[in-house]
Predict the structure.
Amino acid sequence: MMVAAFALGLAGVAHASGLATDVTGLYYTGVNSGYGLLTGGATDTHWTVTYASINGGGSQNSTYQGSAYVVNNSNVVGSGWTQNSATSQWIVAPGAADPNNGNSVNTGGDFLPGNGNTGTKEGIYIYTLAFNISGTGSGTVTNAVSIGLTISADDQYSVYVNPTGNGASVPTGTAAATGTSAWNNTSSATLQNGTNGFNGNSQFKVGTNYLVIVVNNTNSVVGSSTSTATNASGLLVYQVGSAITINGSPIPEEGTWLPVFAAVGLCGVFAWRRRVGRNAAASV
């Protein structure tokens, strides 16, 4: 559920590598190419579920892969999730069911397989956003890049930049950021390379880059589970902070990652868990 805020800072360059000068393609979740809100049940072509597994990563399940879907706002309001903002919306993997609509799939529901954080009933859904860093040279960016990220996800998440496979498999390296019980709150992390005094946790390159967010659907069950019931899952990513900066100077990308101060007050946190009872017997 990357609810999300991005900012880039770039400085310094090394021989025979890339010098970043601009960035494009960073989108909030749930918006179209003109940065307007999509309708519930519409596909979000910017964010793609590039890998899905309903058995803890034991095998891939193509039913839940492809362009993400926008969750109907009616399934967000009163759910215990942080709420959609004026500029972003929750998204979910293809194949998600809506128990309020006859368990129909791909219509704006948010129920997916996943119970327990270990074992054969763990749901894993990897959301990937491709964005571009332009500049001179090629390969690894050697001037300092920093990306601030704000995110909500149901239930747990891990964030990576350009991992092996670019989201086509479960990353095996150390995550740049993680969050647990993340459906009813927002959290922030900084993704940055290890240059110009930065402690690096990400590696950027000139050309296409991949922001990869692994969302685990566990139904808040710790340990293994044998339950086949579906439950709410999703991802929310947006920005409330600084725009992109290069060498310390803001270079806002049109529409998507401009400062959105109004969004600060639009992410209400509910004290209670999401729709318990409604989802107990729901299944795809």
Q: What stands out?
A: Residues 19-266 form one domain.
